[in-house]
Q: What sequence folds into this?
């Protein structure tokens, strides 16, 4: 087991483990740590604890100290300098006529480097821009191209649900999301309904996916022959969340009726000859929706 403390450098950012180095660090303390980028200012969002060695990425960097008032004041100065650097970089991008969108600026705590985050449709030749920025800020300059998900995480906003974006609120890392998750949750495959403001599949499709998979393992397919308390019948509809299947059964008077049963009341005796998936609804309003759906399916 290894003793660690979990440090986060940005709101909703990834949590990194560090060696507390016998320092008394409490949860929510601001700390100064040694990283691959140099000396950084962060917050201990996970108190000192022990974890298995395979959960860490060696070598484990150490915490230098709990942040002092001077450290906190310097961090605030850096935040102000980041705003000024953002405006300066915007002007330089315009002067060079570069097809790129500046998203964020970050100073390392020791001012050893300034990182500019941007998005662009393709590769950007920013060599001259870097020279100009290095001459202005008198320090190392790094321009880092990020994806649309990272852009939304940094900028923030409101999702289709009306709440603040998950990625900018609490998601430390992006989990893989596929169109299959939307299919298994019986969602309409309309890109406008299953995409976030970043234009990619909504992260929340992942939240209930594991539960859906467990239920679907027990749920018979449409067209299956099942044994029910009313005799044999054919599954004509399923409701994953309620764990209910609707079965067409023959009644004693030789008429047929569709009766709902919970999963535990039935037993599958014969699978359908050919799978019938009536839960997938392709719902596109125009050719642009269709193109968007094809793009989302490529992300898988």
A:
């Amino acid at each position: 087991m290894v003793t660690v403390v979990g440090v986060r450098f940005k709101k909703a950012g990834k949590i990194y483990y560090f060696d507390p180095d016998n320092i008394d660090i409490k949860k929510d303390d601001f700390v100064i740590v040694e990283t691959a980028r140099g000396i950084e200012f962060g917050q201990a969002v996970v108190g000192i604890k022990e974890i298995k060695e395979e959960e860490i990425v060696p070598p484990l960097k150490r915490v230098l100290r709990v942040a002092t008032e001077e450290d906190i004041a310097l961090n605030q100065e850096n935040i102000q300098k980041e705003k000024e650097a953002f405006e300066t970089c915007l002007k330089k991008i315009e002067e060079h006529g570069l097809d790129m969108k500046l998203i964020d600026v970050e100073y390392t705590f020791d001012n050893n480097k300034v990182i500019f985050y941007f998005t662009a449709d393709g590769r950007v030749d920013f060599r001259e821009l870097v020279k100009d920025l290095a001459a202005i800020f008198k320090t190392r300059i790094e321009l880092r191209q990020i994806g649309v998900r990272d852009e939304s995480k940094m900028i923030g906003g409101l999702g289709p649900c009306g709440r603040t974006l998950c990625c900018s609120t609490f998601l430390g890392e992006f989990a893989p999301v596929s169109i299959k998750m939307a299919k298994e949750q019986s969602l309409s495959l309309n890109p406008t309904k299953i995409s976030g403001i970043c234009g990619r599949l909504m992260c929340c499709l992942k939240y209930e996916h594991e539960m859906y998979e467990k239920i679907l393992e027990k749920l018979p397919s449409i067209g299956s022959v099942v044994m029910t308390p009313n005799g044999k019948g054919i599954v004509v509809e399923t409701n994953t969340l309620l764990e209910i299947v609707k079965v067409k059964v023959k009644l004693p008077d030789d008429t047929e009726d569709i009766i709902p049963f919970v999963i535990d009341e039935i037993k599958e005796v014969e699978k359908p000859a050919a799978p019938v998936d009536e839960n997938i609804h392709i719902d596109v309003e125009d050719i642009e929706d269709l193109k968007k759906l094809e793009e989302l399916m490529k992300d898988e």
The first helix runs from residue 69 to 96. The radius of gyration is 27 Å. The first strand starts at residue 2 and ends at 8. The mean pLDDT is 87.
